Amino acid sequence: xxxxxxxxxxxxxxxxxxxxxxxxxxxxxxxxxxxxxxxxxxxxxxxxxxxxxxxxxxxxxxxxxxxxxxxxxxxxxxxxxxxxxxxxxxxxxxxxxxxxxxxxxxxxxxxxxxxxxxxxxxxxxxxxxxxxxxxxxxxxxxxxxxxxxxxxxxxxxxxxxxxxxxxxxxxxxxxxxxxxxxxxxxxxxxxxxxxxxxxxxxxxxxxxxxxxxxxxxxxxxxxxxxxxxxxxxxxxxxxxxxxxxxxxxxxxxxxxxxxxxxxxxxxxxxxxxxxxxxxxxxxxxxxxxxxxxxxxxxxxxxxxxxxxxxxx
Length: 312
Fold this sequence. Notes:
By secondary structure, this protein is of the alpha/beta class. It has helices at 13-24, 46-56, 71-75, 82-91, 114-117, 131-140, 160-167, 202-206, 266-282, 299-310, and strands spanning 7-10, 29-32, 37-42, 65-67, 96-101, 122-126, 144-145, 173-176, 187-190, 193-196, 212-213, 235-236, 246-250, 258-259, 287-290. A hairpin with a 4-residue loop joins strand 2 (29-32) and strand 3 (37-42). Helix 1 (13-24) crosses helix 6 (131-140). It is globular and about 55 Å long.
């Protein structure tokens, strides 16, 4: 007997209504954002959040990003300081996640399931710009915990078919609104520290306030696990040519079996990154090689993903 496949529905009023009904019933739904496809559940419902972890096989100590419609909704969940408000004013809605102190019981309580924060006293929040995620937030009336809609440590999905291939029947419904725009996960900032590079670059953040790359001693935000974003096959970085058993993903002047950007455009490369890794992982070659991408702008995020993918 063949495995059950998820239902894929094109974005529209009826599809959003069905997805919102599933969320309200405690289910999980895959939905596109401007970064990658997310696996969404009501962040207040611990059983629903547990279904996300179960579907992904996600480590329990890795927190989830919570998506909300606007700053007012975010402030009901977290305590904002002037720095956080300045970043939110500039980059929300958009691909920036802020890690902030969780609003405590003394001030009304956030009401977020503890699984969402992995037991931490901080919460990762984002106001998305994508029409599908915003429509689902509005229709469901819930803050949505939504990590990338793929099996844990696998390649993040930028198309509905990637979600179906990675999760299968573990996700019953996928909202399909085509390929995502940014192609890499959101930038994560805690205070003035960049915990994960992404589409909102350090240069753009620096126009608002002084920020610096950094790490923490424990996993305090999504995407900090060393082996995140890994394809099944071994991955070699900074390759100028391919060995006989390698599928080469090119960039700029380095041509390959596939390319992130023939013109050397890092934004195009970011949007194509996970698509290219999926194709390489599905190829007949035993290994994957990737051409060097300059460590500048969104190239920092691309290289961050590639280094994690290569670390097995």
